[in-house]
């Protein structure tokens, strides 16, 4: 399916503010970027680099006053995400070197403190994909999606205590419980067709059966038609914008829809 996704962000800065954005996706196994438009008003010089995880990052200094950023993408996306309950746990000795750090605790994912909870949730499960899907289903069943109860400081332990939050929080819990079982897990940010309410979205991937599989604890069932923008250990690695100073987000509009490119 062809998906068109767009995001409009407006900021107000008191002083010039160095910033890093992650709003440009790359083509991959489940998506191919056909067209992209990235604009900023007023026009600002910027540079682009790839971070440790291969994400495209846009680096600039926003001037004092108002700044508007518009990002639009058209991509061919997979209609489904892969599901394989036979995908087993990958022994640590067989993990590729770049995967190993996705086993470790991180800023928002205190996996080293959740071993007993992870074992209790997945008791009786086959090791691997079935464990991860059981974790995903447990979060979907036991947690309440609610804005305003968490913020940028909330970690997995905070969310586990209240069992409320948003996609970012659900994702951190899923990642932490997987890592507690020695299953590598990482955070993904991007767009999801049909998301309600529409917003930038987050989900997680787990490395089982020798590859990455997608899991979304905010959805009742597996859904495709996603555009992935960034990958990392947790929200600290994949924020759509990081400011080094004070910048107020005054407007954010996200739109995701099916499209039929006129040039095809």
Automatic annotation (TrEMBL):
<dbReference type="GO" id="GO:0008233">
    <property type="term" value="F:peptidase activity"/>
</dbReference>
<feature type="domain" description="Transglutaminase-like">
    <location>
        <begin position="159"/>
        <end position="219"/>
    </location>
</feature>
<keyword id="KW-0645">Protease</keyword>
<dbReference type="GO" id="GO:0006508">
    <property type="term" value="P:proteolysis"/>
</dbReference>
<dbReference type="InterPro" id="IPR002931">
    <property type="entry name" value="Transglutaminase-like"/>
</dbReference>
<protein>
    <submittedName>
        <fullName>Transglutaminase-like enzyme, putative cysteine protease</fullName>
    </submittedName>
</protein>
<dbReference type="Pfam" id="PF01841">
    <property type="entry name" value="Transglut_core"/>
</dbReference>
<dbReference type="InterPro" id="IPR038765">
    <property type="entry name" value="Papain-like_cys_pep_sf"/>
</dbReference>
<keyword id="KW-0378">Hydrolase</keyword>
């Amino acid at each position: 399916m062809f998906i068109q996704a767009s995001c409009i962000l407006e900021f107000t800065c008191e002083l010039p503010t160095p910033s890093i954005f992650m709003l440009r996706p790359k083509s991959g196994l489940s998506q191919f970027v056909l067209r992209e438009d990235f604009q900023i008003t007023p026009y600002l010089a910027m540079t682009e680099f790839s971070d440790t995880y291969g994400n495209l990052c846009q680096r600039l200094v926003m001037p004092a006053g108002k700044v508007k950023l518009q990002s639009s993408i058209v991509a061919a996306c997979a209609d489904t995400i892969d599901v394989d309950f036979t995908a087993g746990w990958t022994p640590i000795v067989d993990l590729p070197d770049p995967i190993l750090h996705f086993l470790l605790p991180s800023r928002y994912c205190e996996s080293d403190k959740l071993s007993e909870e992870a074992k209790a949730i997945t008791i009786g499960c086959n090791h691997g994909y079935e464990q991860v899907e059981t974790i995903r289903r447990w979060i979907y069943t036991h947690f309440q999606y609610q804005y305003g109860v968490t913020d940028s400081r909330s970690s997995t332990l905070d969310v586990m205590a209240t069992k409320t939050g948003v996609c970012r929080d659900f994702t951190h819990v899923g990642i932490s419980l997987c890592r507690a079982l020695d299953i590598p897990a990482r955070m993904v940010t991007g767009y999801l067709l049909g998301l309600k309410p529409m917003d930038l979205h987050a989900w997680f991937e787990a490395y089982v059966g020798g590859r990455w599989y997608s899991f979304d604890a905010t959805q009742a069932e597996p859904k495709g038609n996603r555009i992935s923008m960034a990958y990392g250990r947790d929200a600290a690695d994949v924020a759509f914008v990081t400011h080094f100073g004070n910048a107020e987000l005054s407007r954010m509009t996200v739109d995701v829809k099916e499209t039929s490119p006129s040039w095809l």
